[in-house]
Amino acid sequence: MKARHTMPFRIALPLPAFVLRPITAAVIAAVHVYLAAGHLSRLFGGEVEWTLMWKGFGALAGAYVFTALALRGLAQHKVQHLSLDPQKRSATEQAAAGASD
Prior knowledge:
The radius of gyration is 20 Å and the shape is elongated. The chain has four helices and no strands. The protein has a domain at 19-78. It is mainly alpha-helical.
């Protein structure tokens, strides 16, 4: 079933434009992984506290979101750089275009 009124992705997340760039999103995801490792290592080390749980797993969720943003940006970047002129495309691009037709 398809939703009738879907919002564009850029409106759904009120983030600055530089955060949506693939390299910035990847750096933010790496920082989230670092923070999650710190909190979860203390949690699994025996210091069981509610704040360590929600901070650790929340940071992992943030890493997931920013990794998805980075990969989405890389995919869009690659699609924009594909040439539409068949004479200028490489052999792999032509084979991929032929397979999708």
